[in-house]
User: Fold this.
Amino acid sequence: MTKSSISPNLAGSLWMVAAMFGFALEDSFFKASTDTLPIGQAIVLLGAIGAAIFSVLARRNEQSLVVAEVRSKPMIIRAGFEITGRLFFFLAIALAPLSAATVILQATPIVVVAGAALFLGDKVGWRRWAAIALGLTGVLIVLNPDSQSFTWHSAFAVIGMLGFAGRDLASRAAPASLSTSVLGFYGFLAIIIAGLLYRAWSGEAFIPVAFENGSQIALAAVFGVLGYSCLMKAMRTGEISAVAPFRYSRLLIGLGIGVLWFGETLTTRMMIGSAIIILAGLFLLWRGKSD
Assistant:
């Protein structure tokens, strides 16, 4: 099949699925590394390797990493949300089942729509507000806070998801002139800061990195960079309404990895909550602004 025979929407959808594979593998290799590597150290190493890769890509494309737009207010706000989202989601991945954290992350687009209505003045009618409420109910079903098996480690994923939603909202106001490499560099720089903050809070000591751990972190960083790059490519190829629903492929990939790699069990509540979150998210994408 030639390149010209692929429609932009199909190409964008394939890029989006590739991005979700990348992010899911990033999460998986990071989780595997924290079996023996301190969490803060794993976060710092992941951020450092990812930032180095994007730095090389920026230099190769003759793009400066130090530009005035990086110091703009939207970018500073974006960095704060990025640090929050990355820190707590990585904690959730390390301390809670990967499958549960992945499910909760899928509520990010739902929270973005709610945040856009509350803080950016977007018009959201009662049907979409009902879908938002339904999606958040799905998150509660997955968390099951009334159960004796509930741990606050799962709640870390909720805080991480809220951080990512805030980052996405701030990105709408970020300068469009910033390239994927520049945004990626500062995104991974935020990961380094998140790791250092956790290390300062926990007081954990850094240890010598074994070959296995180093390989896992390096693979996590590479797949994270690939995921981020594919995501930017997806959002710039085809119509967003056609491409965005394929974000939910990450749920299937994450659940599959959680079961096959980490031996996790999918509960009925998790499957019901997942279905509710996906249906609510797809409804929000379908409705758009036509309430």
